[in-house]
Amino acid sequence: MMKKIFLTTLLCCLLVTTCNLHAQAPNPSTTPETFRDPFTVKFQFDSKHKFERKFEKTAYVSEKTISIFPNEEFGISVKGEGEEVTEVSYEPDVKKANVTFKFEVQKLGKHSAMMLTIQSKLEKMLVMEGWMLLPEYKEAVKTSLAPVLPHLFGVETWPQPILKLELKNLRFAPAPKGLTGTAQ
Known about the structure:
Strand content: over 45%
Strand order of the largest sheet: 5-6-14-11-12
């Protein structure tokens, strides 16, 4: 009887220890975040409107959400399985990235626009949601984004000033057949 109790206790201790070790093991799919130091976004939108707002320490990519500010250009590395994007990580070297972003103010004669250029080196179409922080708002509002086709680039424009874009809920989708840059 004592032997049975001893073996049961030993088995329970071993099981608890194994579970604790598993819970403390780092997740190999998570990558360390890279942050911008606190900074101020400053840009001239048009002849009448100049914008300036301070931001605290901000990650380029956090929990698969990409933050991009005016006059920035950088890339990300995207990994996935099927339609699910499993990992998104910041890549400062745009030559090594499989998706690059450039966000800027474009002068269009007397008018200006915010322009986001996204270039993809991926084999699948990339779909994502966009959220924009406007100067008069405290919280970001949703905006539409077109899917980015494999091995091509997409351009999005907005007629109003934007202080920050957040790109989130990334997923893959099969590219429509017959479009340039996609499999036939």
